[in-house]
């Protein structure tokens, strides 16, 4: 147990890019230990044996508990890196690791299920015809618009904050300007007081100068007077020198007077020195006051220049504030427009979603209606198929009777040449009946061919009341009749066979009838068609025979066409109406034959006794 909980020191080389560790919490840690939460497979941590629950104690020699976030990021990226880890102290961490693995497995399962759900959702969208790209583009556009609106809101908030800061700065600048104005006003008051004091001092100096000049003039006058007196006294002394020698008292007085004059002279010199000193002091004071005045003037000029600059800056800041306010108003208007656009786009998105839901409902309704219609058409087609089989059996019986009449007629022609009239009448009767049946079958087959075309959801560009013409059908081969009869039940099962009564009732001639007429017109032109005998004058083809086709080759060529028509009757949806038309046409042909044959029999020479039997069998049919 002690070994399992022992500390381990691991080194990470420079070749390792990612350690593959996921921690529960990163530094700065509330509790000191940093616990490993998850270990990625195939990484350095997995290969070195680190498991979930290990505690990381040191990174690069530094304790993890005292690290900051920046120190941890720098240390985890440094190479080589020494990591000191400690194994978990309990089995709970193993349970945590197992739980982590289970969560990873469940997350993977959840991702796979979400992917399958997305695939199913895309398949359903493809089946319903919903375009996922347009929805994604709209969602992306909505996200972009929301992001742009958020960024613009952030910009507006930043601009508002900047504008608030600028307003605060403006208020501070205004307060500073007010303080400066007060200081300048106080300085102005001080300067005015200094000016008044200076003017008073100048007046006092002027008075002192005037007094000094007056005293100087008086002293100078007194000195000049004294000089004159001294000069006069000298003269007197020179004149009285002779007299002074005679009297000593007069000399002593003269010495005293001289001494007094010297004292006065000394006093005058002292007064001059004092006056000059005072004058110098006053000049120095005047110079100092002039200098102070010049300094104050310079300070005043500097203060005035600073005030002008501050006023200009204040005006510029006011203009900037006005511009910012205008920009804010414009941005608010643009934001309102963008909000309106976002609301319109959201409304359009809701309308598109509603339209998509309506389209889904319509598609589901159309699908259900289509299934019901397909079931009904299959049921009706089965009923029509049964009716058509009955009509086919009747037509096959009539066809066998007609072929038997044809065989009897051919044997009669081969037996006797004088019986040409009877054979011509018989061929006429035999050709009129299949021609009528062929025309009816051709019209039915043409209608079926036109209606068997697939019905698309395209618009009808034909004018109203116009009927589409039937397509030209190729000449059927005898071998394809059997294949057509075999494939007809499969074509009856297709849901695209929709009966059109207008096309069935239209009196257009079928291409089979036109080809039969062309072959009937071409057959009598070649005299080498009948190998047994040349035709008699009364056997020449009449307009009636031209329409029906009297040559045996034309009859043999028409037989696979009739088989084709009989086989195509299986594809006809409305079998009852077509069968009634065929029966009515065959009854009309029989009546016409019954009326025309007695008229022609009077002009034709008598033949063998078998002719009447053939006519009776034909009229009975």
Automatic annotation (TrEMBL):
Coiled-coil boundaries: 139-190
Positions of the PDZ domain: 17-89
Record bears the keyword Chloroplast: no
Compositionally biased spans, kind Polar residues: 482-499, 519-529
Domain of life: Eukaryota
Protein name: PDZ domain-containing protein
Keyword terms, alphabetized: Coiled coil
Region span, Disordered: 234-255, 447-583, 597-621
Keyword match Signal: no
Organism listed in the record: Effrenium voratum
InterPro entries referenced in this protein's UniProt entry, alphabetically: PDZ, PDZ_sf
């Amino acid at each position: 147990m002690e070994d399992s909980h022992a500390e381990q020191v691991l080194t990470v080389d420079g070749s390792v890019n990612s350690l593959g560790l996921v921690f529960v919490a990163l530094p700065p840690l509330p509790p000191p230990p940093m616990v490993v939460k998850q270990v990625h497979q195939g990484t350095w941590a997995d290969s070195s044996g680190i498991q979930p629950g290990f505690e990381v104690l040191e990174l690069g020699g530094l304790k993890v508990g005292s690290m900051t976030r920046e120190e941890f990021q720098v240390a985890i990226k440094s190479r080589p890196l020494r990591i000191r880890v400690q194994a978990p102290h309990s089995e709970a961490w193993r349970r945590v690791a197992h739980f982590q693995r289970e969560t990873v497995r469940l997350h993977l399962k959840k991702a796979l299920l979400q992917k399958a759900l997305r695939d199913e959702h895309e398949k359903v969208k493809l089946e319903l015809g919903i375009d996922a790209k347009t929805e994604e583009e709209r969602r992306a556009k909505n996200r972009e618009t929301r992001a742009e609106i958020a960024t613009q809101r952030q910009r507006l908030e930043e601009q508002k904050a900047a504008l608030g800061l600028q307003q605060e700065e403006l208020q501070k600048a205004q307060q500073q300007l007010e303080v400066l104005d007060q200081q300048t006003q106080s300085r102005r008051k001080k300067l005015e007081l200094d000016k008044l004091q200076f003017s008073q001092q100048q007046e006092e100096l002027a008075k002192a100068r005037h007094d000094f000049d007056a005293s100087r003039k008086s002293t100078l006058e007194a000195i000049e007077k004294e000089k004159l007196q001294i000069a006069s006294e000298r003269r007197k002394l020179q004149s009285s020198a002779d007299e002074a020698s005679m009297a000593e008292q007069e000399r002593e007085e003269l010495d005293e007077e001289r001494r007094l004059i010297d004292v006065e002279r000394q006093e005058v010199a002292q007064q001059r020195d004092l006056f000059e000193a005072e004058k110098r002091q006053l000049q120095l004071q005047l110079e100092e006051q002039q200098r102070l005045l010049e300094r104050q003037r310079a300070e005043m000029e500097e203060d005035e220049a600073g005030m002008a600059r501050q006023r200009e800056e204040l005006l510029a800041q006011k203009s900037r504030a006005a511009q910012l306010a205008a920009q804010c108003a414009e941005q608010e208007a643009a934001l309102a427009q963008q909000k309106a656009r976002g609301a319109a786009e959201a409304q359009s998105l809701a309308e598109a979603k509603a339209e998509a839901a309506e389209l889904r409902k319509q598609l589901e309704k159309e699908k259900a209606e289509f299934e019901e219609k397909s079931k009904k058409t299959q049921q009706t087609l089965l009923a029509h198929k049964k009716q058509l089989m009955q009509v086919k059996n009747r037509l096959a019986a009539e066809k066998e009777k007609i072929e038997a009449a044809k065989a009897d007629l051919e044997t009669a022609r081969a037996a006797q040449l004088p019986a040409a009239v009877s054979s011509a009448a018989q061929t006429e009767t035999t050709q009129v009946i299949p021609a009528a049946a062929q025309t009816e079958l051709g019209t039915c087959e043409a209608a079926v061919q036109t209606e068997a075309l697939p019905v698309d959801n395209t618009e009808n560009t034909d004018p109203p009341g116009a009927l589409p013409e039937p397509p030209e059908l190729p000449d059927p081969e005898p071998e394809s009749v059997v294949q057509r009869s075999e494939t007809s039940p499969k074509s009856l099962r297709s849901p695209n066979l929709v009966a059109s009564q207008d096309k069935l009732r239209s009196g257009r001639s079928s291409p089979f009838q036109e080809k039969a007429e062309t072959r009937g017109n071409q057959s009598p032109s070649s005299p080498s068609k009948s190998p047994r005998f040349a035709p008699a004058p009364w056997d020449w083809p009449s307009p009636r025979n031209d329409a029906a086709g009297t040559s045996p080759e034309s009859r043999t060529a028409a037989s696979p066409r009739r088989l084709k028509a009989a086989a195509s009757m299986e594809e006809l949806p409305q079998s009852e109406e077509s069968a009634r038309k065929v029966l009515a046409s065959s009854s009309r042909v029989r009546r016409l034959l019954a009326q025309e044959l007695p008229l022609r029999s009077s002009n034709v020479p008598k033949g063998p006794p078998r002719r009447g039997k053939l006519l009776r069998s034909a009229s009975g049919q």
